[in-house]
Amino acid sequence: MRALLKSRYANPTATDCWRSLRRKELVEVYRDRALALPPLNTTLARRLLEQTRVYVALKGIRGRASVDLAALETLLVRFSELVVEQPRIREIDINPLLASAEQLLALDARVVLFNSEVVDESLPRPAIRPYPVQYVSRWTMKDGKEVVIRPIRPEDELLMVQFHQTLSDSTVYLRYFHMEKVDSRVAHDRLIRKCFIDYAREMALVADRIDPGTGRHELLGVGRLTRQRVPEDAELAVLVTDRCQGAGLGTELVGRLIDLARSEKPRRIVARILSENRTMLKLARHFQFEMVGEEGDPNSLVAILELDGQVSSQDPTQMRK
Ligand SMILES: CC(C)(COP(=O)(O)OP(=O)(O)OC[C@H]1O[C@@H](n2cnc3c(N)ncnc32)[C@H](O)[C@@H]1OP(=O)(O)O)[C@@H](O)C(=O)NCCC(=O)NCCS
Fold it and tell me: Which residues pair with 300 in a beta bridge?
């Protein structure tokens, strides 16, 4: 999107618009451009804005108020969603876009569609897989807590920090096979890789709850499927916060990840489990994983689930033990 992003006026007059058009020319003369592939999320939208020279002015200079950056990010995210959802759009241009502390106003826009002779199959596809909304849904835990189970997002980093702070040493040990300090688990470099994932290669589902006491979001569990070097294998790992263990969440996350794997490429799901981890072993057997010894490690087992030809894990006859 080429866009002009600056004005301090809430209700632009003809003079404001003229000024903004002059700035539009300046934007073009200085080639103040930033590129990003759709779809964007708010983190990517912020990074895109940060790459422009005008960004310093957008944040407010010489006593002028900052433009509404959150609204601007939302606009970029929605604009990118429009481009992804409407593949017949060949070019789209909002220029200029007037941004102020109070409002965003598109003064001009242009859309070019693909010719009707171009068949749907040959329309371009986004290089980045969009946020998989089809995997978002509500679920109620055995103790009555309502959660939304959804794919992880880059914006979840802070919630993940808080989630890790709730985990006991034994839960951490069972998941990582060694004691890993909270500081290293929540290091930004690590968490950004865990939250900012390529949904085509990896999937992490989180259980997101709004704490009725504080009104704030909290994560109660995370389940992850990661493609392995052997392209047909995906490794499964799951982690539920201590105070919510035993309420069915681990089973639900694993069941959803198995279903999801069936509609994607992997043929096999593997999970490495400590031999002493009775809960996870029970859960894996519940989904008919086969247990084999881990080579060179007598303390752990590898649980393997072949996906070919199996019925859905959500089939009640399969769920019953
Ligand atoms: C393993 C883990 C993910 C399971 O999640 P959970 O939400 O506690 O599991 P569920 O409530 O779905 O229970 C799964 C089964 O284990 C049983 N179970 C749960 N907690 C148990 C416990 N403390 N002792 C024995 N059995 C237990 C449940 O009764 C259930 O069996 P059921 O279906 O017959 O009722 C969770 O306990 C956890 O995060 N553990 C630490 C990290 C870990 O081990 N991760 C796995 C590494 S791959």
Answer: 274
